[in-house]
């Protein structure tokens, strides 16, 4: 860009709008990764991922939510949410031979108590 003043004409470099640092989407992506990285040491101690943490927070607000409701609330697809909910569901609530719905997730099947106390959650319910 050329800028004309009383002292003359000066060339002022203007960054291209296509440069990575000029992209708002990249700034948001970088901020998201930074925030997630800040949570990682705490979540690693609990043995859960950030998406699992978000699911637990959503369940604490409103227990026994449908999978689609959680997906909509958290802006996750069912492929991301399924490992979160299936990993915390007791074995007897699977949909084998029509034994019950598998599209509802409840905090009673999640490591809520352990998360709140700072203990590592169990990966399966006690027998």
What are the key terms here?
127 residues; two-stranded antiparallel sheet; 46% helix; mainly alpha; single chain; elongated
Average pLDDT over all residues: 74
- The computed structural class is mainly alpha
Strand segment tally: 4
List the uncertain runs: 89-102, 120-127
- Biggest β-sheet strands, sense, barrel: 2 strands, antiparallel
Strand sequence of the main sheet, in spatial order? 1-2
What this model shows, in words?
This protein is mainly α and about 130 residues long. The protein has helices at about 25-45, 50-60, 65-75, 80-85, 110-115; strands at about 1-5, 10, 65, 105. The strands form two sheets. The protein has a two-stranded antiparallel sheet with strand order 1-2. Helix 3 (about 65-75) crosses helix 4. The protein is elongated and about 70 Å long.
What is the secondary structure topology, with strand pairs?
Blueprint: E1 2-5, E2 8-11, H1 24-46, H2 50-61, E3 65-66, H3 67-74, H4 78-86, E4 104-105, H5 112-117
Antiparallel strand pairs: 1-2, 3-4
Helix pairs in contact: 3-4
In short:
With 127 residues, the chain is mainly α. It has five helices and four strands. Strand 1 and strand 2 form a beta hairpin.
């Amino acid at each position: 860009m050329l800028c004309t003043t009383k002292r003359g004409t000066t060339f002022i470099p203007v960054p291209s709008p296509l440069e990575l640092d000029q992209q708002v989407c990249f700034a948001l992506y970088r901020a998201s990764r930074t925030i997630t990285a800040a949570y990682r040491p705490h979540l690693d101690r609990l043995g859960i991922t950030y998406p699992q943490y978000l699911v637990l927070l959503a369940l604490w607000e409103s227990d026994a939510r449908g999978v689609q409701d959680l997906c909509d609330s958290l802006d996750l697809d069912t492929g991301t949410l399924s490992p979160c909910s299936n990993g915390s569901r007791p074995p007897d609530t699977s949909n084998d031979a029509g034994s019950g719905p598998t599209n509802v997730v409840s905090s009673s099947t999640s490591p809520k108590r352990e998360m709140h106390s700072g203990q590592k959650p169990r990966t399966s319910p006690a027998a």
